[in-house]
Design a protein that fits this description.
The chain has seven helices and five strands. The protein has about 190 residues and is α+β, with helices and mostly antiparallel strands. It has two domains: about 5-115, Double Stranded RNA Binding Domain, CATH 3.30.160; about 130-190, no CATH class. The strands form two sheets. It has a three-stranded antiparallel sheet with strand order 3-4-5. Strands 1-2 form a two-stranded antiparallel ribbon. Strand 4 and strand 5 form a beta hairpin. The longest helix is centred in the middle third of the chain and has 20 residues, at about 75-95. The termini are far apart. About 25% of the residues are buried.
């Protein structure tokens, strides 16, 4: 198999591992993705089955990988695909395919390089109640900087960020405290409900 040299060590890409599988084995690969919305993270389990020629005996290998959406350039648009590739590469490695100096593939080395600058975000997640309070303080109390403060203090889910962006852009009517369903109307507007 072709290798790529990184800092004096040889590594095999997942593509090379798959090509080797195709040329030398009867096999199948199944992947099981799981999404964790609060962390905006994909976890994929890959199951590699290698059969004997009569498909009577089978050896089973698994590989796990995780990717956070937006963590690095590729994960901004392709976190699931990237995660699946890594999981498949690890399953192949556990089957002994593509191992030169260790289980890790060149794909995982490159991912680790991009993560070197990544620091774990330890801020708490913004709750729905805290979002409601932020919206109320922005709309009713005129606290223009409350959204910036909120974003510095909390990790915010994408749908909540869209709502805050809409408020800043002025795309929603101003609700008053006299309207107790203001937040629900805001949520319904965002979800396209009538």
């Amino acid at each position: 198999m072709k290798t790529i040299n990184i800092k004096g060590k040889d590594y095999v890409t997942v593509a090379e591992r798959l090509l080797h599988l195709k040329e030398n084995y009867v096999y199948d690969i199944q992947t099981e993705p799981t999404f964790y919305p609060e962390q905006e993270m994909w976890v994929v389990k890959a199951i590699l089955r290698i059969y004997d020629k009569e498909k009577k005996d089978v050896l089973i290998y698994t590989g796990l990988a995780q990717e956070i959406i937006g963590d690095g350039y590729i994960n901004k648009t392709s976190a699931l695909e990237n995660c699946e590739t890594s999981a498949v590469g690890r399953a192949c490695a556990f089957a002994g395919i593509g191992i030169v100096d260790g289980v890790v593939s060149v794909d995982e080395i490159n991912k680790a390089k991009t993560r070197e600058t990544y620091k774990e975000d330890t801020r708490p997640w913004l709750s729905e109640k805290q979002l409601q309070q932020t919206v109320s303080r922005f709309v009713n109390d005129g606290e223009i900087d409350i959204i910036d403060k909120c974003r510095k203090t909390f990790r915010i889910r994408k749908e909540y960020n869209k709502q805050l962006d809409s408020l800043i852009a002025g795309n929603h009517p101003v609700f008053t405290e006299d309207d107790p369903d203001a937040f629900e109307k805001l949520m319904d507007d965002e979800n396209g409900e009538d």
